[in-house]
Write a structure and sequence with these properties.
85% helix, mainly alpha, elongated
Length: 143
Amino acid sequence: MSETQKNSAPRAGSAQQLFRSVLVRGSLLSLVVAALGGGIGWIIVGTAGLAGGLIGAAIAFVFSSLTALSVLFGARLPLGGFFGLVLGGWILKLVIFMALIVNLKGADWLDGKTLFFSLVAAIIGTLSIDSLAVLRARIPVVE
């Protein structure tokens, strides 16, 4: 086995392990945000608050999963393919988010404030999870 093969195999495994961990923790965070955001929204506003909390958690789950999956699958591609996949995923998320906001704006069955605060809580949580996971990862950055 060559020196390059020895060095590349652990990194690929470590990166896959890192992003699987991010996916699992992001899923758990989305469940917590759904329970807390939906529960608090239901207590304060009623069913519209419950819908806002659940939709906010679902949006955060889908977006954080798309990010982790695009990096996980992109790691198997050449560098140009990696950047193309990650950028394409980012553009897709932007378009989906804009379409969701346009379609959900003014919905009577949805409380916008609960949706907003659920999204903010989930975004801060996923940023924290991603940052801590990368900081704690044992992935060499120099060959």
